[in-house]
Amino acid sequence: MTQEMDLNQRFEQYIAADQKIEAKDWMPDAYRKTLIRQISQHAHSEIIGMQPEGNWITRAPSLKRKSILLAKVQDEAGHGLYLYSAAETLGISRDEMLDALHTGKAKYSSIFNYPTLTWADMGAVGWLVDGAAIMNQVPLCKCSYGPYARAMVRVCKEESFHQRQGFQIMLTLSQGTAEQKELAQDAFNRWWWPSLMMFGPNDATSKHSEQSMRWKIKRFSNDELRQRFVDMTVPQAELLGLTVPDADLKWNEVTGHYDFGPIDWGEFEQVVAGNGPCNRERIDTRVTAHENGAWVREAATAYAAKSSKRASSQNSAA
Ligand code: FAQ
After folding, report:
1. Which of 99, 195, 278, 317 is 20 to 30 A away from residue 115, measured at CA?
2. Atom number, ligand 1, closest to the C-alpha of residue 200
3. Helix (H) or strand (E) holding 244
4. Which residues have CB under 6 Å of ligand 1?
5. What is the pTM of this model?
6. Among 118, 294, 124, residue whose Cα is nearest residue 193
7. Ligand 1, from 34, 36, 41: best to mutate by most atoms within 8 Å of Cβ?
8. What are the tens digits of pLDDT across the range 244-260?
9. Nearest-CA neighbor of 198 among 133, 285, 265?
10. Cα(251)–Cα(235) distance, integer angstroms
11. What is the mean predicted confidence (pLDDT) over 93-122?
12. pLDDT tens-digit map of 264-296
């Protein structure tokens, strides 16, 4: 009991001193549990997030756009892998995490349950979804858990490239024909509110924020980050010549921030509960891809077993 108290005290000292907690360090069960929850949800979001954009690889308007989109979608797969690896350091296996995703027990970001209807959606997703992801994830580079914080550094660099390529698609469309500008506006209209929902429930109802901020997993609350995102994105929309789909949006001289209209939390809850426009399709596609990849996993396991047998027989011969 006293030993646990000492360990806890040391853990708290590390957190207070902004020192990283590493995989082999003692940590409270609840800290471990919430990290597994957040990191695995984050990993699931990255790999499910490949689907809405993967949908447009075969229909990109040029070879250049196709290769850029292909590279972006591959980056998201890589982010999933770093994050699954970071979560594994906490003592959960990749199979357990994937099983939770496939059986609907684990969450992933609500944003990926919306359809990508036109090419302009590739612009809107890059600009808004990756933009929101960066806003949320840059502070995670300073998360108290070392393996998560380090994974986020590379993820953020790549997300920042993704955001710029999305903005560039929006810029091209909004400076194009009237029809192209209309496509950009339509995509903006459909992705704006779901992007604000990505930051999670408002501070009054967010159940994990307070504790996660105390542990320095999260550095800012959901509402703080959402507000920063609005403040950053509105001038970008002006530059594009697009209209933010919010009649209540206005600059507030007193606070120095944009005021924005109410978020439809009913819609958010429905999407998180599995009833969004594409929830079923996303999981079905993921499960099918996993099943189709069974032979690759079996071959890789057999190869690894053979290699380690060869290595151990060479060792014993030497
Ligand atoms: N969707 O108490 P809080 C990307 C859940 S990656 C679904 O506020 P917390 C890259 C939450 O899990 C995007 N569920 O929770 C990309 C919790 O449920 P639980 C993903 C949501 O953890 C771009 C409950 O509501 N990014 O975009 C959502 O303190 C383009 C209560 O919420 C991350 O995961 C939501 N939007 O704060 C890829 C970043 N929001 O677990 C492809 C890391 C909340 O009790 C293409 N995660 N919930 O069952 C975080 O920063 C946090 O986990 C939050 C939520 C901010 C998402």
Report:
1. 99
2. 40
3. none
4. 37-38, 41-42, 45-46, 49, 76, 107, 109-110, 125, 129-130, 133, 136-137, 197-201, 206-209, 212, 218, 222, 272
5. 0.95
6. 124
7. 41
8. 999 999 999 999 999 99
9. 133
10. 11
11. 97
12. 999 999 999 999 999 999 999 999 999 999 999
